[in-house]
Amino acid sequence: MDILQLIQSNLLTPIVLFFLFGIIAARIKSDLKIPQAISEFLPIYLLAAIGLHGGIQMRTTGFENMLVPMLVAIGLSLLFTLNHYQILRKLGKFNIFDSYALASTYGAVGAVTFSVGLSFLKNQGVTSEGYLAAVLAVLEPVAFILAIFLTNMAVSKQINAKKQSFTNDSKSDIDVGLNETKIKLSKILRESVTGKAIVILLGSIVIGYIIGKEGFGPIKIVFDDLFTGAIVIFMIEMGIIAGQRLDDLKKVGIFLISFSIIMPTFNGIIGVVVATLIGLSMGGSVMFGLLLASASFIAAPAVLRNAIPQANPSLYITSALGITFPYNIIVLLPIMFAVSSLLHDPEGSIDLFHYSLKDLI
Amino acid sequence: MDILQLIQSNLLTPIVLFFLFGIIAARIKSDLKIPQAISEFLPIYLLAAIGLHGGIQMRTTGFENMLVPMLVAIGLSLLFTLNHYQILRKLGKFNIFDSYALASTYGAVGAVTFSVGLSFLKNQGVTSEGYLAAVLAVLEPVAFILAIFLTNMAVSKQINAKKQSFTNDSKSDIDVGLNETKIKLSKILRESVTGKAIVILLGSIVIGYIIGKEGFGPIKIVFDDLFTGAIVIFMIEMGIIAGQRLDDLKKVGIFLISFSIIMPTFNGIIGVVVATLIGLSMGGSVMFGLLLASASFIAAPAVLRNAIPQANPSLYITSALGITFPYNIIVLLPIMFAVSSLLHDPEGSIDLFHYSLKDLI
Amino acid sequence: MDILQLIQSNLLTPIVLFFLFGIIAARIKSDLKIPQAISEFLPIYLLAAIGLHGGIQMRTTGFENMLVPMLVAIGLSLLFTLNHYQILRKLGKFNIFDSYALASTYGAVGAVTFSVGLSFLKNQGVTSEGYLAAVLAVLEPVAFILAIFLTNMAVSKQINAKKQSFTNDSKSDIDVGLNETKIKLSKILRESVTGKAIVILLGSIVIGYIIGKEGFGPIKIVFDDLFTGAIVIFMIEMGIIAGQRLDDLKKVGIFLISFSIIMPTFNGIIGVVVATLIGLSMGGSVMFGLLLASASFIAAPAVLRNAIPQANPSLYITSALGITFPYNIIVLLPIMFAVSSLLHDPEGSIDLFHYSLKDLI
Amino acid sequence: MKLYPVKLLTITCEILAQKNIIEILTKHEITGYTTYEVNGNGARGLRSQGLTNEKNVKIEIILREEKLQDIVEEVSRTLFANFAIVLYVSDIGVLRTEKF
Amino acid sequence: MKLYPVKLLTITCEILAQKNIIEILTKHEITGYTTYEVNGNGARGLRSQGLTNEKNVKIEIILREEKLQDIVEEVSRTLFANFAIVLYVSDIGVLRTEKF
Amino acid sequence: MKLYPVKLLTITCEILAQKNIIEILTKHEITGYTTYEVNGNGARGLRSQGLTNEKNVKIEIILREEKLQDIVEEVSRTLFANFAIVLYVSDIGVLRTEKF
Ligand SMILES: Nc1ncnc2c1ncn2[C@@H]1O[C@H](COP(=O)(O)O)[C@@H](O)[C@H]1O
Ligand SMILES: Nc1ncnc2c1ncn2[C@@H]1O[C@H](COP(=O)(O)O)[C@@H](O)[C@H]1O
Ligand SMILES: Nc1ncnc2c1ncn2[C@@H]1O[C@H](COP(=O)(O)O)[C@@H](O)[C@H]1O
Ligand code: NA
Ligand code: NA
Ligand code: NA
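^ Those are the sequences you sent over. The predicted structure of the assembly is below.
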């Protein structure tokens, strides 16, 4: 199977089809919607299922091999966030606030994207390292914290600059930034760590680890067998919301649209390559790449709206949910799968260049 | 098994029993109710399941044989709507608005009734043509459109008549009716076609058709195995609502009560016979009959309340939900099943006249 | 396995772990919560499942052997309620209203506790008498009715006492109490019996009895296989609510905290012993004990808030939900299981005193 | 379109007191009201978490001044002591006084 | 902070009439409003049970006195006869009149 | 039953600003308020679809005139620029002024 075929076959899975269906339903202004209580419950359920699954697997594989991937993921996430900022500010000419908000939205991770990735792998009969669920939990707040810290530092730099024209006695920008940020950051950190996504995910990992495979038995049907069906239902609502956002694409502009496609591809491929280098399995490398490629669209607004209220939320919500999410689950996921296959088994069945080879022979 | 036995055994299925239970719960004024989010979600789920199922089956059987049943169903639905109007207006002495509203409520179809029918057949181990899900989708707006058109025409006829006493220069009623209706109709048509029921049903049919049996695998447990259990839960709420409506039966009057039982029986039996004639299977003929017998009680109020606001909603909601729905799923469904068995296998096991034959021998 | 081991292994089941997780989530002030529609629906679902299960089993075992356990349960419940009152009023120095409210909260039963108990037994591969679901339904209003009657009698006694200082002609306290209570009681009785918990439970028992094992087939996956998973989800919310209540423990005081642990233990163990004496199975005796040990925290506030509005609701809700419920499902359930094992098979594998025996040998 | 002055009585209380209030309204022959669930904070603590029974409800009643006094008096007398409850009155204008 | 006097128009009606009301508002170039679902009791009976379509909605519109008359007139003329509906007006103060 | 005049401050804003408003109230030693989720339309577009975070909330605070000014000032200064928000004040009468 070459990449195109893989994309095409991925396009025809219920998850992607129901997402596209949701978009269409929104475009034709149908009154279809999944009741709020259901669409609020589904992410909690999905994260609990992911966490339990991860915890159970971690019990068999142990944490010890988790440390390196975790640190690498954090490092990459921070690096990428800074990189995004430079691109957005310098090339995209966005203001500081929008630049940091967008940079961290794309530096953070998307739990729903992660669910879809797991389901995709399951369909392909490929497994991945369970501890990646823990990486997902840890990675979520990291990018936001960096962005909020840098935003506050930048703001105090400006204030300081003004002050300095009057007096020469001033603390370094970093000191002031640190100070002003501390209160805000500790609040944001608290809120991030106690945010429902992280709490349910970490809690379920621990519980999964404790109960193991036998303990999971009686609840397997709910937290495993129903998983894909539940994602399908959630995808309808995600599609509807993405569809309602499509009108906002004009406001987003061509630069940000390109950014929302190129950046995840770049981050994701690097993620797959790095993951392969540090020894993750074929499926694990795909999930690792997906973590880095994904943008946050559920947690981001909740965090950024209060932390950087000056930023325009429709920029980061629309690009993350309206462009990057569909692109990731429809196009990039199969691409990363192909790349990972290639890297893990260069002689293997996936032949990225089979047309050229064919042409040559 | 004769009809009475069939009715009796149908009476003792969880679906019917939980419906009756809901009625009792409402009558004794219990505070039992299914939370709104759940009872709004269930019809969406049921229609998605019906659609997927239908789409998957259409893939194997193809559409080509769908055209005739579809056109016949539309034709019968229009004919029946006109027939209902005559009966209600002439015999029942209802005003124009109530007559058209009721006529179309009974000309339209009930998706919930359809779900119960599918579950009934499943229980009996009988299959039906998958494309009937598509007929369900197409049939829904037809009767409403006719009724709304005719109502508007009648209204403009009256207005015209008044005008004519002053002037002789006037367009034909149909012209005026057409004109005044156009705006309203196009709006109603839009709303019908983008209404959530039709959208989710058609969408799921298409998706089912695309993914086929293998694609359905991972979501089968949610969209197939849970189906009957989900109907049972929905039936509790339907029973409660029907029970709350029972007090309104007095307002409905004896004529409309009879109409709500006789008309579906008539329409349903004709449906079964015609379906058999145009070659549908035994189970398919039952479902075809049920389509024509069923009255709309979820879509109807939403459409008619704005399209014919002069009509009294408690008439059409109460009769459709309080009388026809229980009658259909408890009594008429087994009757149509017996009739269809007889028609499809005259020598078969169902013997409508076994008592008389017994008596004769 | 000795008791401690049993408690420990019970502590590590998903049900208990997710409950503890919910408590922690609430304590760290996470914004995690199960949407209200879901947490309102789950008890209805759980009771329907319990009822169906009970009804199906009663069909095979018959009611005839149900009468004695039922009457014994009612008798014990009334006795216990009076006993609670004496302890609370005399030893605890609570006022009349709080005493009666608390006495009946602990005299009544907890349906959620019952669900957890059933799940616990299932996990241990032990069955219990199906008719205990019916005992659950009947037992619920009994303690409340007694408490409300006695409260009203006490109030009229006081009023009468005041009046008597003016006049000598007065009816007996009981007469006045009866009279004033009658209206209130008949209202409360009506509300109890038509309360959603009892209605869905009794309805499902009857339906289960009618449909039997084969009728249950198509809905088994929803009402049986999903049961434990559904409890787990509900336990998250119960844990969150219990966690939010922990702050109120100070208001509750050390006396009531002790009461909330000692009383259920006493009632529960007596329940197990009596159940064994009247011939219940090993599992049935555990469930019987659990009925008597459990306190009501869903029905109680709804009933008592209107029946004894003078009582402080935070006393009875906090102690029942915050202390007794966790204690019952974590500690007391395994203890009663051990006791019942011992009583039903004194030579059996559970050895309450194995350490002492070991020491002796 | 002339607007006639009437009163709007708004009662915010714990959900379990709703029944009692509706009873009082019925007793005073008032059948029109609007209700919806709300969260709240007040003297009796945060009422927006936990079980449904611990939520609040808001009840709004449009009525003529004549009936206002009696109802306010009965609500405050019978319910203020034992329930979480807050009540206020505002002046509004309506089109059809005959409805109230 | 000066508060400028404007009007608050509150319409409680059956949910299926919401669309018609929003249309009237749009026609009069009013784009600001707040809505929420409520239960109710009135001349057309209890509206809090059964199917969603049988619920009520409350629509609140802050507007200047100039626009009030026309809107109230159109709502009452086109919707009062056929829908469960109640409407009232109150006086409120806002900070930024230019918003309304 | 005498009714004492106090103020009702109503704030309709995006749900993510609720926390900030409650903080301002707490700072001014106001602990009584009522909140509920609503849908809305305004300068920042339709706020009734999509993710929960994009919904609105209405916050109602009964308070004495003395406190009104400061709170209105702080809310408008800190939140008007960056959040979807609307605020208005009305006159109401209550029974127990000591509660507010
Ligand atoms: N100052 C206030 N402003 C608005 N609502 C209030 C206020 N005080 C109390 N409430 C509401 O009334 C309910 C009962 O109040 P309380 O009896 O003080 O606990 C609270 O839960 C709030 O919903
Ligand atoms: N007196 C009233 N006070 C408050 N709300 C009312 C009143 N009368 C009617 N309503 C509301 O308006 C809706 C429609 O009223 P009606 O047209 O009288 O059925 C009712 O369902 C209530 O929600
Ligand atoms: N004229 C108005 N009347 C009532 N509510 C309004 C009005 N304008 C805005 N709102 C509410 O206030 C929210 C925020 O308004 P805005 O900041 O203009 O987007 C809206 O989503 C509405 O819920
Ligand atoms: Na990322
Ligand atoms: Na029909
Ligand atoms: Na008990």
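The helical segments of chain F are 18-27, 65-79. Chain F has one domain: 4-92.

Shout if you want it in another format.
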